[in-house]
Each structure stands twice: as structure tokens, then as C-alpha cells.
Amino acid sequence: MWESISLTLKLASITTILLLIVGTPIAWWLARSKSWWKEVIAAIVALPLVLPPTVLGFYLLLAFSPSSPLGSAATALFGHALPFSFEGLVVGSLIYSLPFVVQPVRNAFDAMGDRPMEAAATLRASPLNAFFTVALPLARPGLLTGAVLGFAHTVGEFGVVLMIGGNIPGETKVLSIAIYDHVEALEWGQAHILSLGMLVFSFLIILIMMVTEKRLRRRTS
Amino acid sequence: MIDQATTMPEIEVQFEGSVENFDIDVHFSFPSRGITAFFGPSGCGKTTILRCIAGLNRLNGKFSIDSTVWQDNHIFLPTYKRPIGYVFQEANLFPHLTVKQNLLFGHNRRDAKNPPPTFHEITSLLGLEALLDRSPEYLSGGEKQRVAIARALLTSPKLLLMDEPLSGLDLAAKDEIIAYLDRLQEALDIPMIFVSHDIREVERLADHIILMGQGRIRAQGPLLDLLTDPNLPLATGDDAATILEGQVASFDPTDFLSELSINGGSLYVPGYIGEVGSKQRLRISATDISLSVMVPSKTTILNVIEAKITSIHPMEEGKINVILSLGEDNGTHLLSRITQRSYASLGFKPRQKIFVQIKGVSMVKRLQNF
User: At what angle do helices A86-112 and A69-78 cross, to 10 degrees?
Assistant: First the structure.
């Protein structure tokens, strides 16, 4: 049980950090670009919101297979094939949870408007410097929401994990799979403990996020 | 007044193009000292030109200041490399930083080669010492704008640009900011450009006006000349006025009257308006000047000065603008607004010698001592 919990937390933490690193520039570009095809990119990023996780998992499985170009490159990079590995889960979670990070961060950048960056430019800050010293601090409520949603969503994912991760203890057997396993094996007691734990955890996360966001928003608006 | 000799350092502006279906085509230059106002109705393109000077918007053209080019066909300096200070209409302070951190944001990034107005000098000039640890959200509109001006000045700018810096403020805050800007102009030798659609602000602050309309330059020149130019809309408006500059000649403490000497005569102004010898800017509304063919006797009006009619300009609705020259031909110009009926009954004509009676004079600005 503890193995599943720690694996889940590890997966969610790594995924969240990567999500912020990858999602923030995408969100910035979506908020600032004037090109007509940015909404196409936005739609692709948002796709996991509506796509059944099993469909996403199925395509990822195909893409990761060592016989595909992407899969062979990944195999060369990680030293083993991505399907049914922890790294495979990270990549899958990254794609699956991306919209949960990009959306709130983009909203925060949109709400900020052009003025703060213009003010920073008139105060000698280069665009990159202004991004880190003005845009990111002002987008803190959005970044926090994105990180929490991305983390929580990764903790709770099931379909994608089942498709590309399988059920290898210590490697891909995350909480949601463990619960599913317990129920299948009619181990109601174990399933109860894990499920109740998840319920409390989810509630606390949402509560803390709402309170913190409210405080941050008051400070940055 | 500013004389445009060939060696005078100047700012040259030329922009052409369209922003959101609005055409702009301007080419003008003006002295790179004192305060210049871009004046015109809302939507005439004045803010766009200011933003182009800052590099925040980009139109084809050229910009140079004292022969340093910031933009031409080959060069376009990005905003953060231009030695400007920019004050936005709505202050635009960073909400995540304290007042002090806002002030230091640009100060720490300035080009160290430029002569520094020190942090202490600027904060005391703008009276900000007590506000430094506050968060911008707890400041009044006037305080925010003062911080924004200080923040811009602390970058050691070679040019201060202000986009309607007074428009969001109430009257008291406006007066306060104008007083601060006067002090700044006196203390720091930085040319300033400000955008305004309010002629009262322009009268109080500007030395030079660029008059704009529909993306074009309508007229430009020293403020004192443009206000009384009968061919410009400034002289035909309801609040047309003459701005003149004079030196305090004496103060009579018994009657509490100051006497100012101006080109072509002298004026009495109620109250103490400054020490003897100081230069002051005064405003006389066109409707406060009446004309008389003879020396008016037994009148309560203090200011009765001999003048000569320069030109007469009938306008709509039975109103007539008369341009006068105090004393002889090259005296200070005054703009008087009289009625068609008075004009017909008294039969004024150009070059005629008459007497002007000035009902009210108000001081608008204390000028630098030279």
C-alpha cells in the first residue's frame, strides 16, 4: 500500500514540476500571440479534457512502441522502452494533465493585460527579465491553481495509466490502480482505506488552493 | 520664451502608418528642453505618437533626440534600451511590489553611465518618504501618480513621456501633481512631453504645444503664441485665453497687490504672487478683457492699459475676437472676446489705439528664475 502511495506522490510531483516548466511558456504564448492558429494549438492542448483517457492511452501506446520513430528515440534516451515504465507514465501524465495547468496560467496572463510588461520595458527590463520579475509573480494565483490541479489530476488518473503503465508494483502501480485491484480482489477494507484517504486528500487540496488563491489574488490585483 | 535657433538641441519626430485602421502621418520637431504638450481631442492619435516615441508601438518613421537616433529605416531600439521615463495614464504600478521596490525596479536597471538623480533626491522632491513601505493598492490616485513619476525619473531618463498623467485625478490631486511637476522641471533639466486633451493643464504646464487633430499636426509652437493665434481653434473656443509671462516688479503690502511688468505695460494682480524679480505665468480669459476707446475713468478695474488693435476676427453667434498688442506694435499679444453689437457701435478698426480693461488675472505658474 505504501509503495503505491509513494509511487503516486513521486509521479504527481515530477509531473507537476514538468507541467509548470512546459505549460507556462505555452500559456504565455497563447495569451500573447496574435497568430490565427494559436486557437488550434489551444484546442490540441485542451483535447485531453474531452478525449476518453483510454483513447489517449491507446495512441500513446502506439507512439511509444519501440518500432515507431518516437518510441525508438525514447528507447535510446531512457535505455528501455517507455510502455509499462515509470518514465512512460510521466510522459503520459504530462500530456493528460497539460490542459489543467495551461488553462489557469493562460487566464492569469490574459487578465494581467499588456500594461505591466510595457511598464517593465519602460523601466529598462528586457522581455525575458520582465517575464520572470513581473509576469510570473503577477500570475502566481494562476500558477498555483495550475500546479494544484495538475498534481491532483495526475494523482487521480486511471485510464491512461492502465493503458500504458499496466500494473507493475513499484514501477507503475499507482493508487487508482491499487484501489481497482483491491476491489477486483474483493478486498473491501483496503479499498476503503485508500479511497477514504484519496477523498480527504482531494478535499484538503481544493480547500487549501481556494484559500491561498484568494489571498494571492488580493495581493496582486 | 524658446527661440528656435539652428544650434538648438531638438527632438525630431516623423511617423507614418496606420494603427487599428486609424491613419497617422506626422512630421515635426521641437526643442528638447522644457515641457511640450501633445494637445488635441480624444482619439486624435497623440497617445499613439507618444507610444511610438517610447517604442511601445511601431510605425514607420524616424525619431531622434539631440541627434541620437532611436528609430529610422535601419534602427529600431526596443523600449527597454531607450533612455526614457514613461508615466502611464493609470500609474501602472506593480501590485506585487512595495512602493520602494517599484521605485528601485527601474533605478537598479538604469544605465550607470547616466548622471543619477539619487533615490533620496527624487523621493524627497515628490514627497514619497512616508509611503515607501506601503503597497500600491493602499495609495490614493494622486499618490500613485507621484510614485509613477518618481519611478520613471529614477531610471535617469533623457526624456520623460507622460500619457494624460492628470486625467484620472480629482481637482485637488491635479493641482498637487502640477505643483510637483513644476518643482521637478525646476530641479531637473529633463525635457518632458505630456499628452493632454485639457487646455487648462496645457496652459499651466507647457512651454511648447503640438496641436493635433485626426492623426495630423494642425499647428505647433510656443504656447504663448499659439493660444492667441486667431486661425487656430484654441482662440475660438469658449474658454479661449491669453497666457502671458511677466516679472514681479513690486508688492504693495498695504493694498495687498503685486505689480508685474510685462512686455508693453504692467499688470496688477491681487495678493502676493512671488518675490520681486521672480517670473510668473498668468492667464487672462478672453471674455475678461473689455475694450474702450477712451481712458475709462471712475472704474473699479485696476488694469487699464493702452494697446493697439492688431486684427479683428468675426466668429459665429455674434462674437468677435480682437487681437491686441500692448503698448506699441511688438508688445505682448492679448486676445479679447467682444460682442458684434459693441463692435458695431464703437467701430473698431485695425491699428487703432484703444484701452484694454482687464477684469481678472490669475496666476497659473511660477517660472524658473534665469
Answer: 100
